[in-house]
Amino acid sequence: MLENTIFLTVRQRSRSYDSDEQERGACEWCEYALIITLATVLLIGVSGLTIFWTFFYREGYGWADDIPEKQFNLHPTLMVAGFVTFSGFSVLLYRICRCFRRIYVKLLHAIFHALAFPCIVIGFLAVLDFHNKKGINNFYSLHSWIGLVAMGLFGIQYAVGFFSFLLLLICNKGTANFRASLVPIHAAFGILTFVLGVCACLTGLTEKALFTLGAERYSGLPDEGVILNAIGVTIVAIVAVVMYIVSRNKFKTEPRNMRASVDLSETYASMSTEGIVINAIGMSVVAVAIVVLYTVRGTGGYRLRKVAQNPS
Fold first, then answer.
1. Using one digit for the tens of pLDDT, what is the confidence trace for 176-217?
2. What separation in angstroms does the CA of 6 have from each of 11, 14, 127, 205?
3. Model's pTM, two decimal places?
4. Can you give the pLDDT at residue 286?
5. How far apart are CA 33 and CA 39, in angstroms?
6. Is residue 63 part of a domain?
7. Is 25 within the bounds of a domain?
8. CA 178, CA 157: separation in Å to the nearest integer?
């Protein structure tokens, strides 16, 4: 009798989900497909446009060579990639991957953040090293202040998210309430970090245009100025699209996929083969981050100690 009741309840829930799917009209699915496609094109396009600007107008990239400006060029490109492209995708994953199991979405979310992390770190070290070589003061502008706050929040968000929503799944039942209470806080600060990163990119583009082109030439709107403005407008469009997608409750992950993740979490807690693979992916992400930091340090990125010893 009890088994029949449970079976009927499951069937009723399944029918309710099917009816929800049927209620979604063609216009709603078209809106979903259009807005997700637009967001994807903008997120990839802004990094492509930044790379084009760097090669076409700024002579490409370099590190510790005879042209320090080439090293500086890594800063805008990597910061746009880290704070806008990869962070934007990580924010949208819970709207894009609606049919995926929630644990897989979490893994993709962590991977995109892991891709953003070395971009932000190397981009920061590139401009810091460039300023030290040129004798330019650091951390004096509004752009640098916003960037520091954004980087700090990004690091905290990544550490808290990785620990709370991946590692604590090992003790799923004991940490369920804690993780559930942390979700809205993590989401809110994630949006805040994304917006601050965008603000840092926009103020940085303005600084670059004024310092490189000069106010008089920039006011004449040369070709390079048009490209820089186009990058800025694209970033603003990305913010508008991302905020629209996030604010639409209809784009959220489906409840049945959220419930399926609970079952998967219990399987994960028993250290199944799939759980071992998930742990291996997480450890690989950490290893990549360590290797990147070690490599950057070996190429002369960390000059802070030398600067402290020789202030002149």
1. 787 788 889 999 999 999 999 999 999 999 999 999 999 999
2. 9, 12, 61, 59
3. 0.76
4. 57
5. 10
6. yes
7. no
8. 16
Range of the domain at 237: 42-299
Helix (H) or strand (E) holding 33: helix 26-57
Which pLDDT tens digit goes with each residue over 144-153?
Answer: 999 999 999 9
Among all chains, which residue has been given the structure tokens 């995926």? Answer: 100
- pLDDT exceeds 80 at position 263: no
Q: Which residues, other chains included, contact 36 with Cβ-Cβ below 8 Å and sequence gap of 6+?
A: 92, 95, 96, 245
Write down the residue that tokens 């369920």 correspond to: 176
> Which structure tokens are listed for 2?
């009890």
pLDDT for the residue 14? 44
Q: How many domains does the chain have?
A: 1
- The conformation of residue 73, written as its DSSP 8-state character, comes to T
Q: Which of 24-28, 101-105, 168-172, 268-272 has the lowest mean pLDDT?
A: 268-272
Distance CA 290, CA 265 (A): 28
Q: How many residues does the chain have?
A: 312
CB half-sphere exposure, 145, CA atoms < 13 A? 3
Alpha carbon distance 115, 120 (integer Å) = 9
Backbone angles phi, psi at 308, to 5 degrees: -65, -35
In a domain, 197, yes or no: yes
- Residue written as token pair 């639409």: 248
Report DSSP letters for 208-244, one per residue. HHHHHH-HHHHHT--HHHHHHHHHHHHHHHHHHHHHH
Structure tokens at 52: 């084009």
Q: Which CATH number do you get for residue 200?
A: 1.20.120.1770
Do the domain assignments include residue 170?
A: yes
- For residues 46 and 235, is the Cβ–Cβ distance under 8 A? yes
User: 190 near 155, Cβ under 8 Å?
Assistant: no
